[in-house]
Amino acid sequence: MKLYDRICFSGLRMNGNFFKSFLRIGLMAVLLVFWASCKEVLKPGNPPNILLILTDDQAYGDLSMNGNPWVETPVIDNLAQEGAYASHFYVSPVCAPTRASLLTGRYHQKTGVSGVTRGREDMSLEEETMGDVFKTAGYTTGIFGKWHNGAHYPYHPLGRGFDEFAGFTSGHWSSYFNTTIEKNGKPFETKGYLPDVLTDEAIRFMRDAANNGQPFLCYVPFQTPHTPLQVPDKYFDKYKAKGLDDFNACIYGMCENIDDNVNRLLVALDEMKMTENTIVVYFSDNGPLNYRYNLGLKGRKGQVNEGGVRVPFIMKWPQQVKGGIVIDESLAHIDILPTLADLAGIDHEFKNRLDGRSFKSLLDGQGALPDRFLFNEFFGKERVLYDPYLMVGENLYDVREDPLQKKNLKEDAPLVYDSLKTVFDSWMADVKPEESGKKYIPLGYDAYPVTTLPAHEAHLFPPFEARKDRRHTGIAYHSLYGWAHDWIDYWTSTDAYAEWYIDVVNSGRYKIEMDYALLPENIGTVLHLSIGDKHLSVEVDEAFMHSPRENHDRVEREQEAPETDWGTLSPGEISLPEGRTRVKIQAQFIPGSKTIELKGLRIIKQ
Predict the structure, then answer these.
(1) Where is this region: Disordered (predicted)?
(2) Confidence (pTM)
């Protein structure tokens, strides 16, 4: 039987007797406290390296082993054959929540992460991360790719247990070719296709760790196949020749590029003679952005149906993981940290109670795991799985008999639905985060003297709305939704303004800079900047117009702002005391059609 047939149809099916099934609910209390531990220590022996690969918006059906008739991913397919494949692996519906759960072993609601932009992706500083755990255990730790759990230090990866970082902290990147990302806190100009560059950096990191005799945690969160739709010609042309439209030709081209880069990572391990003692993990952060081949699973990214949260998951470790096995039990992103710590022999006294559990016993043939509930929630969309019963909103399914969610069992089994609803409501009441109010951006750390207040994290007044007619609101974002890298535009009213909330951790003198653009007809516009009770005004006496950039998009983007260049204004310096305050910028005079386009402010400790 083909692997994808086993994935679709394998598994022990509960006998359908609801009352017997729910007699086991009492076991859940045991699961909540299973990760009691002693003083942290790395057990004797040669600790395994960790290569953790995460893809972005890659569907369950975006691998050729899962029956996709177009995409070609032979390396990843082979990785699943040589390792263990979890056929029912679940994540959150969107990027940042999944990453928070991966890094902490906890449901994202507990970590302070609720969304994907304007600070909703910032992971609480009270959380321990995978980087913290493995670094404390003697590992060198690095991340190469998309972070998306906080841009400002100490929310930044270098403040969360990672020794090295090359990539970007936002939810997406605006250009995948010859761009400028970040490397250890400084701008890093790249040449070529960005996933290839990230792979280069990861290989360098692993080689350096091997040369220094250190075990490593190498986290490689690729930003593909997330939009914008950019991929080298050789991949795009290949899938266009198969008769696909531009959108899916680019998506599958990006998937094959991932496959090629996974191959490069695995070859590097072979060359370093580290394959046998490296745990390789591969999975995706959520379902697909568009409706494409996905084995018929219902839903997509942003939704809590199977198509939005069920993703491919592979783990290979030749020393301990039996090759070719398919794990049929339902597992989740919250399980990865406890499992890796267990496999590595790390006893860690976790600061916060984990929601995940180790599935090591499934990898070494020691038996099944206890039954449990797996929860999901996103902007009011409710989901709880007690395998095989799945509650999604007002619907109930048996996902083993009905994996495509075609038959609603709510009327046939009202007690099952009511019980799952009660369990979900109880869980939600426990994990629902308190209303945090304003998000304060920390600044003034001696080691990180430059803090950027990006336009997309501003609060706009009149309040921002995703409106097609944003030109008539007085102030708006250049692109529709104001996602990462967008900028403030259509600023035509002197009553309109933008503001941020900051937390100055060290008092002192600070230099202010603005990244801006301005048409010649609007020269002479006057801006007023206030930080608390400090004020600066500047008359903009020089135009700056965006230069044309090479457009690598295969399909015109609908949401992301394009990458472009900016001029710099330096209004002056200002003395700031410690504490929380507000930054506000407003146009005092607009001589032409509008004031500046504003990319963001930089506040630089002097």
Answers:
(1) 548-574
(2) 0.92
